[in-house]
Design goal:
13 helices, Aminoglycoside 3'-phosphotransferase, Chain: A, domain 2, 18 strands, alpha+beta, 6-stranded antiparallel β-sheet
Length: 473
Amino acid sequence: MSEAVTRTATTHPGSPGSPGLLASLDPLLREWLPRQRWFAGKGRPVTGFSLVAATELLPSTAKLGLYHLLVRAHQPLTPGTSPHPGDSYPGDCYQLLIGVREALPPRLAPALIGHLEEGPLAGHTVYEALYDTRPAELLLEALRTGARIGGLRFERDPHQEIRDGLVPRMVTSEQSNSSVVYGDTFILKLLRRIVPGTNPDLELPLALAREGCPRVPAPAGWLRAELAGEPYVLAVLQPFVQGAADGWELALRELAKGEDFGAEARSLGRATAEVHTALARALPTVTLGHAQLHQLVDGMIERLEAATQAVPALRPYAPGLHSAFTALADLAAEGHTWTAQRIHGDLHLGQCLRSPTGQWSLIDFEGEPSKPLAERRMPQPPARDIAGMLRSFDYAAHTADPPMPGWAEACRTAYCSGYAEVSGVDPRTDPVLLRAYETDKAIYEVVYEARHRPDWLPVPMATIERYAASDLI
């Protein structure tokens, strides 16, 4: 390993811990950070930054400098809200890889953060380092050799080979995190919004690898840190499924051609069941009785009430939607119980990859990043994952002109049948539970679309109208 990779942070004036560096970055980050897809605080001004941790990966005295920063962005609360225990107020913590050059070559123009006019690096240009070959190579080399750099711990699975010399390229499509592909062999996912604790995006794939489940790429390496006694997962390196088709894009292509998607949906149902079965073997399961279901239903009702305040168009349908949740509570009161386990937590077509051989894989086990980590790690009924996938089929069907609800229904049937072939349980045999989770998901979609994509609002609203008017899905 090169000396630059093994060194720790220094204290010369340009080091990340020097008082002037973050202050000089502040005005640039205020402009740049809110424009990033992975920035969670859109719509609220950034009032300042504080440094959580900093490590110099390449000395700024060299032609190319590289800093790893964990920076807290301070923002005012959304009006009408207050901080809750476990929230990261007064601001979210973000992981940044900051490159430093005297001037950027044209190929790095999209990576520009800005030019520093003052501070220890005055006269230099700073940029998103993942776009640059050398910094990306350094990360893989550190993982390959199990480096320790300052407070960063690069770790790896000793049973997987990580070759050197793999050419990196940054994935430029919009994501809630950032990814770099290395030579069509590995993909490194760099988590952006950082919270302390055991991140399921590493925890669950490692558990599935121990179970020998082939449906999830086994982590080859990962980056951790420990700050103030709290563990943080910062990045995960997994095998890259070369030539794989994204499930969402594949479904849209088949829809556009008027092709049936039933065989793929059935295979995807089987893959989902294999993952759920392996997770139930690997990690503890719990039984949800009346008290636990009461809490679960209360959460669904609270989200419905908040959604009707945020989106007035929901209000006429609230009583019918509410009945989906009270029906579940009634079953629990009669003594019904359900098994809860670790699940994917945010399953939809875009979280699935089909290899050229037809093998489906599930990816991105982080769950919904906006939810507290403790909530994302709670055991839940597998029906939540299944509901997410069924809603994804419905979304795909509504991209067609005209919409093709029959296509979504055929996918629903095939997916649930495939799931039953592996698990022995057809999700449709528990319609009250499935209806509650599908309703909850559709309500979430209405709020999301109203805030971010108003043109898409008719898609979940059509489902809301249907759910509110029916006794069972």
